[in-house]
Amino acid sequence: MKLFDTIAGMGHEQLVICNDSSACYRGIIAVHSTVLGPALGGTRFWQYASDEDAIVDALRLARGMTYKNAVAGLNLGGGKSVIIGNNRTADREMIFRAHGRFVESLGGRYITAEDVGTSTADMDFVHMETTNVAGLAGRSGDPSPVTAHGVFRAIQASAKERWGSDDLSTRTVSIQGAGHVGYYLAKELHQSGAKLIVTDIDAERVKQVVSEFGARAVAPDDIYGAQADVFAPCALGAIVNDTTIPQLRVEIVAGAANNVLLEERHGVELEEKGILYAPDYVANAGGVINVYSELAGWSSARAFRKADEIYDTILKVYSIAKKDRIPTYQAADRLAEQRIAAVANMVRTWPQWPNK
């Protein structure tokens, strides 16, 4: 792996390889961009097949956070960290305190939070060593309602783009995944008058959504072929692929899952099939908005108001896609790049000199 060529090619500012043998800690911190502000991104705890796989994952995820934060209109750059190891281990304090010390060593350039394989309890250990951590227990709280609200607004905006009205009372939405975000999304859609189709590998979750919101349950593999107006993936990523695209019987794909497209070409195939795709990192930005609200000291109401803006952002993405004749996933990237470039070109009218 040509490390410097890889970093330069992906546009990263910094890659930190961290080791503390006494704590059995091996970590990687990737800082993609600090143009808009400190790089925010969670810590993933995973048993990678190789060190190279871990580095590539950290770099890829960090770049994704730059675009997500930029499109969400937040004063944050993008970063990510990964810890290599078994995330089921019970011996967590020293691992995460070691991680906190390395985060602290970056002097505020990077702020971490929970991610796959980590929890708010782990972030409490990180917090013992640094204040550059968010998503702590008792702070901003469960991000699921804010995330779901943003996805709901993305669905409304997509309906406006496709049918000329964001009224969902005559529409049917199929939801894949009835976990926290899926549940709150189903609640908002039900309140809007939409009919629901739901699936999940956990039968109890499905039963709750069916009972409370009158949804129709289908088997997990049947959700792709369900006749609906909107498909809302709220579980695993990479579910828009060669196998599922031919099955889809919807006009819009808009959900909370990350990395919905298995490959970028699948975004093109959705276009060719006449399906409008709301780019995942735009639609699900409510989660990072919730974290930012903790850092900025916002109230819950203000976080929800910020998530409301996802409606207008999605419409901007569609406008760029039409104007430039590109797929919507590319239009989202272009919108993010425009904001980053605009901020980067701003003249500093209050230079800090001398720098203390």
Plain-language structure description:
- By secondary structure, the chain is an alpha/beta fold.
- It has 2 domains: 3-65 and 77-127, Rossmann fold (3-Layer(aba) Sandwich); 144-339, NAD(P)-binding Rossmann-like Domain (Rossmann fold, 3-Layer(aba) Sandwich), CATH 3.40.50.720.
- Helices cover 44% and strands 15% of the residues.
- It has 13 helices and 12 strands.
- It has helices at 3-10, 51-71, 93-105, 120-127, 144-163, 180-191, 203-213, 265-272, 280-283, 286-296, 300-308, 310-324, 328-344, and strands at residues 14-20, 25-33, 39-40, 43-46, 77-84, 110-111, 172-176, 195-199, 216-217, 230-233, 252-253, 276-277.
- The strands form 2 sheets. Strands 1, 2, 3, 4, 5 and 6 form a 6-stranded mixed β-sheet that branches. Strands 9-8-7-10-11-12 form a 6-stranded parallel β-sheet, with helices on both faces.
- Helix 2 (51-71) links the parallel strand 4 and strand 5.
- The protein is globular, with a radius of gyration of 20 Å.
- The mean pLDDT is 94.
Task: Give me the Rg, rounded.
Answer: 20 Å
Low-confidence stretches: none
Shape: globular
**Mean pLDDT across all residues, rounded?**
94
Compute the number of strand runs: 12
Give the proportion of residues in helices. 40-55%
Largest sheet entry: 6 strands, mixed
What CATH architecture of the largest domain do you see? 3-Layer(aba) Sandwich
CATH homology superfamily of the largest domain:
NAD(P)-binding Rossmann-like Domain
Q: How many domains comprise the coordinates? A: 2
Within the CATH hierarchy, at the fold level, what is the topology of the largest domain? Rossmann fold
Distance between the termini: 39 Å
What is the CATH C level class of the largest domain, in words? Answer: Alpha Beta
Compute the number of helices.
13
Structural class: alpha/beta
